[in-house]
Amino acid sequence: MFVWIFHRISGIALFGLLALQLCSGLCQASISERAWVQAVAALHQHPAVVCTLVFCVIFHALYGLRTIALDLGVKRERLLFWVFTVLGWLLFAGFLAGYFAYFVT
Fold first, then answer.
1. Assign residue 87 a region: left if phi > 0, alpha if psi is -120 to 50, beta otherwise?
2. pLDDT more than 90, % of the chain
3. Which residue among 1, 47, 69, 80 has its CA within the 20 to 30 Å range from the CA of 33?
């Protein structure tokens, strides 16, 4: 049940976070000096926004693959949950290590 709920919530979060990234990217390219434009542009590289987006992408994709595997007839639901959860955390930890080592100063 957790995976079903998380998959729906992360899908909605991805929709909002991707819209935020698109808008903030447009504001970054803007030549406007307005304060709100600069504030929105600063969100484009904010670590919390970027990390939340990557977290949602990783787990939404992996739990989607889990759902596909179950639809194809794989009967090991609990094993699939743990394999994809551990794989997701490993991928996210690798992303965090690289992101904070090379992109956040």
1. alpha
2. 70
3. 47
* Model pLDDT for residues 27-41, shown as the tens digit of each residue: 888 888 888 888 888
Residue owning tokens 């699939």? 80
- pLDDT for the residue 69: 94
Domains of the chain and CATH, by start: 2-102 (1.20.1300)
18-34 residues labelled b (16+ CB within 10 A) or e (exposed): eebeeebeebeeeeeee
**Per-residue model confidence as pLDDT tens digits over 76-95:** 999 999 999 999 999 999 99
Give me the long-range contacts of 84-93 (CB less than 8 A, separation at least 24): 87/62, 88/58, 88/59, 88/62, 91/58, 92/54, 92/55, 92/58, 92/59
